[in-house]
Design brief:
Layout lengths: L1 H34 L6 H29 L1 H21 L3 H29 L5 H27 L6 H6 L2 H13 L5 H6 L3 H12 L5 H9 L8 E9 H4 L12 E4 L6 E6 L5 H15 L6 H11 L70 E3 L28 E3 L2 E11 L5 E12 L4 E4 L2 E2 L11 E10 L6 H5 L10 H4 L4 H5 L2 H18 L3 H14 L2 H7 L4 H26 L5 H24 L4 H21 L4 H6 L8 H29 L1 H23 L8 H20 L1
Parallel strand pairs: 2-4
Antiparallel strand pairs: 1-3, 1-10, 2-3, 4-6, 5-6, 6-7, 7-10, 8-9, 8-10
Helix pairs in contact: 1-4, 1-5, 1-7, 2-3, 2-4, 2-24, 3-4, 3-7, 4-5, 4-24, 5-20, 12-13, 13-26, 17-24, 17-25, 17-26, 18-22, 19-20, 20-22, 21-22, 21-25, 24-25
Length: about 750
């Protein structure tokens, strides 16, 4: 697990450079306009500051698509090179036009980092701590701003401060970032799988997870290549095969599915629960309630919420940086394997799956090890990629002592498991035909028990000698088992290469209902975040602290007004760091949605106090205290919720095939809104005044809270592929509700 943490920290250095650049130009521009005599040319001064923003906006238009084509790592390397070259150009810049070129190159690096770092961290982080690691960019960005403000403040105390040195010193951390991207950061395993480079992806996963057995997650990455599809939500009761019924033949019972353990003679049985899944029932109930309330709450939100409500206490809420209980089943990923009973495997471990190109290389797919038992017309369920998974005999639920890891042969993180079952049906001519179904499983409650031959739901009475697990199941067509193969009536494991699965029409993929719903959520969050007031509060902070007497105190210490403004900005960013640290801890405990719903009201209250303090005449001391407290609270709660969460959610909710282009769309929205807010603020201040601006921001925050409550689901602790599957199911359910 430490491998994923270190990789995320290294990738987040790119955001440190972004924060460093933003803070440095704020101080350096004071001396730039003096040297180039820009006091009478405010438009050129504004262009120097905004050139980085322009560059970030321009490069974002194509960065996502290129990242899906070339990979995440090459784009991060390019960003470090752009940072490095841009800083050297600014260090040299003999005139204002060369300075503009350096700022443009620097903006290109900023744009790539803002788009690619959240993708990269989400695709490499385990689900249990993905929120924590994806909050790192917010922390390093604010940390970079603080360090830069301190550096510029120190330089401002010199007799003749050099703005070239202020801007050019960026080449030092950018060089560090370059070496990290070249020699330390691996390529995203999800991107590697999408290109069919399975062996390389497996090695990267083993390094990130710190264990050899990553077969379940490898299978998950392959399944994530699909988009859309008909997914059903079912529910199973899972228990030992010999305890389900007395001498009952599982192959004859059409209501049971058999799961095989790694040890000879060890097997498990899954019995579908009549009446549908608890998740689906809760979701339908939520949809009914939504219709009674005017169809306001999105069924997607209810669907995600029902999953988290049914999580056991040992679920994915626990951070993997601390002792945790792993997955819902006791997965013996580190147990010795006994494969003697599985002598009829079609493909042995380590043997290559033949590609459609006939190449013998890293690009070859390791087939899921499917026993010849699969080709019989039993409804047997097998785990994929590697030897058959182990379910530890004696208890399905991992013990409280934290044995094992969060994922094993079938484990895919966050308490989820991946498996397949063989289904059979009769066609019109009466002939039997079979096919695979992929299943994502997650425990819904607590171990149950049975009396006699009757399986009881969790909470029923029992002897405790034979335990059962109630599990939700997302059942869909496997990504590698194409519809074309179904039409050919194949028997057995006939599958296509992952690189072929990942191909498809980009426009068609973007039209998928689940992708469109995810884009609506992502773009909406980016728009509301930018119009929630952070730029206005940052703009007003020096004035507020000046009124609070900070400026007078600093002037008495012999510090000039320009140096005072830099020190005040440094103190402001320093206050953010503890709040971001708290958000890092809570992001995977409370969840993204909960953090937004609890922090946005504080933003609203802070803005309302600022409005009142600017409308009502009051004592100057009272005014300064109210304003200062409101600004500090706004900053702290913004960086805990609305600051990092939109980027985290945007990096989680899109399928692998279109993740790059979709996040680029969200990032482009972010930059466009940033430009609008930045350049409209002076106009708004003149037209409606400071109180009017803060009042408008408060209204936007109210709209944001309503939007989050109605449209934004909770994604904590869920594998990325499961999240996108739920978006697909929820979008189709919403369409069905609309049609009804």
């Amino acid at each position: 697990m430490s491998g994923a943490v270190l990789v995320a920290i290294a990738a987040a250095i790119g955001n440190l450079l972004q924060g460093w650049d933003n803070a440095t130009i704020a101080g350096a521009v004071l001396y730039i306009k003096k040297e180039f005599h820009l006091e009478s040319n405010p438009s050129m001064e504004g262009l120097i500051v905004a050139m980085s923003l322009i560059g970030a906006t321009l490069i974002t238009t194509w960065s996502g698509g290129v990242a899906d084509w070339l990979g995440r790592r090459p784009m991060l390397i390019l960003s470090s090179v752009l940072y490095f070259v841009g800083s050297l150009v600014m260090l040299w810049s003999p005139n204002v036009y060369v300075l503009l070129l350096g700022r443009l190159l620097d903006g290109f690096g900023v744009g790539l980092v803002v788009t690619l770092v959240p993708i990269y961290i989400s695709e490499t982080a385990p689900p249990e701590i993905r929120g924590l690691l994806n909050t790192l960019p917010q922390f390093t960005g604010s940390g970079g701003m603080f360090l830069s403000y301190c550096m510029v403040f120190g330089m401002s105390l010199m007799p003749s401060p050099s703005w070239r040195l202020m801007l050019g010193v960026l080449f030092v951390p950018s060089l560090v970032f370059f070496f990290l991207t070249i020699f330390f950061l691996p390529e995203s395993p999800r991107w590697l799988v999408s290109k069919g480079r399975m062996l390389e992806a497996k090695r990267v996963l083993q390094r990130l997870r710190g264990r050899e057995d990553v077969s379940g997650e490898m299978a998950l990455l392959v399944e994530g290549l699909g988009i859309g599809g008909d997914t059903t939500i079912e529910e199973y009761i899972i228990g030992p095969a010999d305890d389900v019924a007395d001498d009952q033949d599982i192959a004859v019972d059409k209501d049971q599915i058999k799961l095989y353990g790694a040890e000879e003679g060890l097997s498990w049985v899954a019995r579908p629960v009549k009446g549908g899944s608890t998740v689906s029932v809760l979701s339908r109930h939520g949809s009914t309630m939504s219709r009674r309330q005017g169809s306001l709450v999105d069924p997607l939100v209810t669907l995600f919420g029902s999953v988290h409500e049914k999580m056991p206490e040992t679920g994915s809420m626990r951070s993997a940086l601390f002792p945790h209980f792993g997955s819902m089943f006791s997965v013996g990923g580190n147990q010795p394997r006994n494969e003697e009973w599985d002598e009829e495997n079609l493909v042995g471990e380590g043997e290559d799956y033949p590609t459609d190109r006939g190449e013998d290389s890293d690009d070859e797919l390791h087939s899921p090890l499917i026993s010849r038992q699969t080709t019989s017309m039993e409804k047997d369920m097998h785990s994929g990629h590697g030897p058959l998974s182990t379910f530890r005999h004696g208890s399905q639920v991992q013990g409280a002592h934290g044995e094992g890891g969060g994922a094993g042969s079938m484990g895919i993180g966050g308490g989820w498991q991946v498996a397949w079952k063989w289904t059979e049906r009769e066609d019109e001519s009466g002939q039997k035909e079979g096919g695979f179904k992929r299943i994502y499983l997650h425990q819904e409650g607590f171990p149950g028990s049975r009396r006699g031959s009757i399986v009881s739901l969790p909470g029923g009475e029992g002897t405790g000698e034979a335990e059962f697990v109630q599990a939700s199941a997302l059942v869909s067509q496997p990504a590698l088992y194409s519809k074309d193969l179904l039409r050919e009536h194949t028997i057995g494991p006939a599958m296509v290469h992952p690189s072929e699965t990942a191909k498809g029409s980009l426009w068609h993929d973007l039209q998928d209902p689940g992708v469109k719903r995810a884009l609506f959520v992502g773009v909406g969050l980016q728009i509301l975040q930018q119009f929630s007031g952070i730029n206005g509060v940052l703009y007003y902070t020096p004035q507020i602290l000046e009124q609070a007497g900070v400026g007078i105190l600093l002037s008495n210490l012999g510090i000039s007004s320009s140096s005072s403004s830099l020190l005040i900005s440094a103190l402001t960013t320093f206050v953010m760091l503890p709040a971001i640290a708290v958000a890092m801890r809570l992001m995977d405990l409370s969840g993204r949605r909960t953090l937004l719903l609890t922090t946005i009201p504080i933003l609203i209250a802070s803005l309302i106090v600022l409005v009142i303090s600017n409308l009502v005449h009051m004592n100057s001391v009272v005014h300064a205290v109210l304003s200062t407290v409101s600004v500090v609270l706004y900053f702290c709660f913004f960086v805990m919720g609305f600051g990092p969460t939109p980027n985290i959610l945007c990096s989680e909710i899109f399928p692998t095939r279109v993740r790059g282009i979709c996040i680029a769309i969200c990032a482009l929205t972010f930059w466009i809104c940033d430009i609008i807010v930045t350049y409209s603020l002076p106009v708004l201040l003149k037209s409606i005044g400071l109180a009017g601006v803060f009042g408008m921001y408060a209204i936007v925050c109210c709209i944001s809270w309503v939007f989050v409550y109605l449209k934004v689901p909770e994604t904590k602790g869920m594998p990325l592929e499961v999240i996108t599957e739920f978006f697909s199911v929820g979008a189709r359910q919403a369409e069905a509700d609309k049609n009804n």
